[in-house]
Amino acid sequence: MLKQFLTGAVATTALLLSQQAFSAPQDPINLDQLLQQLQQGQFEQTEENKQREARFRAEADEQARILREAIAERDRLEQLSETLETNFEKNEIELAGLTDTLTQRMGSLRELFGVLQQVAGDTSSKLQTSFVSVEFPGRSEQMSELAQKMGSSSKLASIEEIESVWLALLQEMTESGKVSSFETEVTLANGEKVNKPVTRVGTFNMVADGQYLELVPGTDTVAELIRQPSGRYLDTVAALEQANDNPVKFALDPTGGSILGLLVQAPDLGERIDQGGTVGYIILALGAIGLIIAIERFITLTFMGGKVKRQMKQPEAREDNPLGRVMAVQRNYPDVDTETLELKLSEAILREVPKIQRNLTFIKIISVVAPLMGLLGTVTGMINTFQAITLFGTGDPKLMAGGISQALVTTVLGLVVAIPMTLLFATLNTRSRNIVHVLQEQASGIIAERSERSH
Question: Tell me: the pLDDT tens digits for 414-439?
Fold first, then answer.
């Protein structure tokens, strides 16, 4: 036991000496000083332990106080929670009762607001496609917001909002009977945007600078139609823009653009001819050649008939007309007998007939060949149409209708050429026959006169 105590004392002494060595150098000490230092260190350690115990007791009291406060706060919050739960249940019961009362009191009024929401949505869709919205923008967005507001919440519409729907419908109805002029931005056919005065005809059409306009979907702006209708419709646009207070004719589209869209899609005369292809152009070329020949024959026969009529009133034969050349036979052969003179006159008439009836046969050939070529083009087009049907099927009726329409264009062209050619041939042939008949009549008179003199 003593050995352990001495060992501990030595270790403690060594520790203190090492601390003193690190803290500051001191003079060598003896055993009394060592014992004194040990006693002093034990005292300091005891004091430090007492301070720790005091601090621990103080902190334990503080922790106990905090724990008591936390328990008290928990009890208070639990009591508040129970109170709030009780109030919440009471409020729910009261709210359910008030909701039932509101539902009972509203009755058919709720149906009214449902109809109002539907009307607001329909009105918004209508105003989006109305030309009136170009002059009065923002109406469609207002109706759309009102419809969404009434559909997404249980809040009822105010009197002002109900009146806004009524006013929008009333404005649309009133403006549909007006012709209004104002300035707005117009997108031209080349994509350029310019401000120009436009004329609105009710809710049906808008025009500017002699052109029809269309409403750009989803916006309140307008643009020129890339393809305009035929000239007879554009003439009414010009008349409308130049009119003052006097009534004028105007090509109105009551569908708001549907009929106009179909009209601009219809091919014009040039496009129809292009659909005929090579056969169609050949038919038109033959028709042009036949028309030129017919005009030349008409002019020639007209002048020739006039000269023949003048020759009939003159006793002397003139060489500038067929009748004069036939009558000159009598002068050239004054002493021949009747049969010889008859043969000479027949020869002279036969000589004049080809000049009178020149190229009439070609006109007749064109009148016969043109419909046959049209039929050829139709058959060729039908073959191509059925080949397309074989490849792509019959799912698209427009494919069949378009192919058949193009195939029939050549038949139309053939008939268009054949009918006037037939009429022209009949007219010119009649004129030429009349002239030949006059020659034959005058030749018979000459023969009769010679026969009377011979007897």
Answer: 999 999 999 999 999 999 999 889 88
